[in-house]
Design a protein that fits this description.
By secondary structure, the chain is mostly beta strands. It folds into two domains: 159 residues, UDP N-Acetylglucosamine Acyltransferase, domain 1; 33 residues. 0% of the residues lie in helices and 34% in strands. It has a nine-stranded mixed β-sheet, with no helix packed on it. Strands 2-5-8-11-14-17-20 form a seven-stranded parallel β-sheet, with no helix packed on it. It starts with a strand and ends with a strand.
């Protein structure tokens, strides 16, 4: 596998770990102790916070802001200008008017499970978990956990469909059963959760 590619205009901390085959593009910033797996792409102007962890084959599109302590598992897609927050009660100053410091608050993170996708300009308000292979629609504001295979949209985001690993909305086959029109994979719904059947 090819070594990591970091363009000259990118700002990558010496303590960051960049996996083989990964690319960090123009004006992107990868902070101290961040870890990127193999074959990741960090787009133009994207930000990866201190200690953020990305699995293998993750894509951060242009100007995505992934603040610590976010964790992204393998195959996560983060669209252009997405924001992951990290503070319950954000303030610039303390009640007495003094400037807050880095140790004045407790960072909370967003967790993205395997294969999940976050659409352009979506905001994930920490702490939330985006489930396996779930999709967050463009412009959505996520304020609570997203189940595996859910497609959520709106402000605040709510589930509007189920999707499969291919990202295509599933088709009902009756009796709380679903099928992916692209792969043929079947799924079963129970108590607002979806589980995969045997491989197609």
């Amino acid at each position: 596998m090819a070594p990591a590619r970091i363009v000259d205009s990118a700002d990558v901390a010496e303590s960051a770990q960049i996996g083989a085959g990964s690319s960090v593009w123009h004006l992107a910033q990868v902070r101290e102790d961040a870890v990127l797996g193999e074959e990741c792409i960090v787009g133009r102007g994207a930000y990866v916070g201190t200690g953020v962890r990305l699995g293998n084959r993750c894509k951060l599109q242009n100007y995505a802001l992934v603040y610590e302590p976010a964790t992204l598992e393998d195959g996560v897609f983060v669209g252009p200008a997405v924001v992951f927050t990290n503070d319950h009660f954000p303030r610039s100053v303390a009640p007495d008017g003094s400037l807050k410091r880095g140790d004045d608050w407790e960072a909370v993170g967003v967790t993205c499970r395997e294969g999940s996708s976050i659409g352009a300009r979506a905001v994930c308000v920490a702490p939330v978990t985006i489930g396996r292979w779930a999709t967050v629609a463009a412009g959505a504001v996520v304020t609570k956990d997203v189940p595996d295979f859910a497609l959520v949209a709106g402000v605040p985001a709510r589930r509007i469909r189920w999707v499969g690993r291919a990202g295509v909305p599933l088709e009902s086959t009756g009796d709380r059963s679903w099928r992916c029109p692209q792969t043929g994979q079947t799924y079963t719904e129970h108590d607002e959760t979806l589980t995969e059947g045997a491989p197609a």
